[in-house]
Amino acid sequence: MARILALLLLASAALGPARAAAQGASTTQNPQVTFATPGAKQVTLQACNATGCNTLTKTITVLDPSPGLDQATVGATTVASGSVVQLTGAGHGRPPLTFTWKILWNGPEIDLSGPSAFWNTSGLPSGPYTVSLVVQNSAGTVASLPAPVAITADSGLGFYTIAPCRAIDTRGGSALTTNSAITIPVAGIGAIACGIPATARAVAINVTVVSPTTAGLVTVYPGNYPLPPVSTLNFAAGQTRANNAVLALSSDGTGSLAAMAFLSGGGSVHLLIDVDGYFQ
Predict the structure, then answer these.
(1) Element (DSSP H or E) covering residue 93
(2) Residue 17: C-alpha distances to residues 25, 37, 92, 95, 245 (Å)
(3) How many domains does the chain have?
(4) Which residues are within 8 A (CB) of 214 and not within 5 positions of it... i.e. 6 or more apart?
(5) What is the pLDDT of residues 96-116, one digit of tens each?
(6) Confidence of residue 1 (pLDDT cuts 50, 70, 90)
(7) pTM of the model
(8) Exposed, middle or buried by CB within 10 Å (0-12, 13-18, 19+), for 46?
(9) 270 and 192 in a common domain
(10) Residue after which a domain boundary falls, among 97, 121, 152
(11) Pair 178, 223 in one domain
């Protein structure tokens, strides 16, 4: 039987904590080793018998177990009270990782769990707030720099009518399928040519579904909000239906709406949205 003369590093060591330096060789058949520093490490196995020796060298990557931040994005810097702010984060490090969004203001701290979250400002007073993401595991803690968010009083809005203007008609492209969300720019630069200013906070729309291949529903909602638990339109196969709605635009300054379809049996449906006016 070949004799083990050099180190064979177990694959699990590549993800292990950096506890102690491990250098040199081992004659143990199945050694376990932890490295003091992360990075690329070279390990060699040499097996010999009376007829000679064979050597195999591998390069492995030892990961840093400490938590790190990859992203901590706050979806708005100024919002009206009652708006929803999208929080998007990501991190790395030895699992399990915990993610906590910490919102500080002149009141009790608000904590939201998860790498991505939605902060609903309903009921909160106007004023300055700061938002930061904390990532933690057994090896340590790291936090993003606090991002300022100003909540303004939700004052009354004026309504401005426009000539009906088509925001989207999927008949010129791909129909919606189950769980297929689309984003529709409505206000501001780069949006549809309906003259809706970037300061618009909500729109009055008419939503129409055309040529559904199966029964289903469509939900239209603000572009950076979570999917609400209600539908805008329900329909049967082959049915053309329409409905009116007044919807807030996204709170991240893009002035967008989103639409999601749910259809039975993997069907598809075309969507039309016409804008009749806006609030600002």
Answers:
(1) none
(2) 20, 9, 14, 11, 55
(3) 3
(4) 237, 263, 264, 265, 266, 267
(5) 999 999 999 999 999 999 999
(6) very low
(7) 0.71
(8) middle
(9) yes
(10) 152
(11) yes
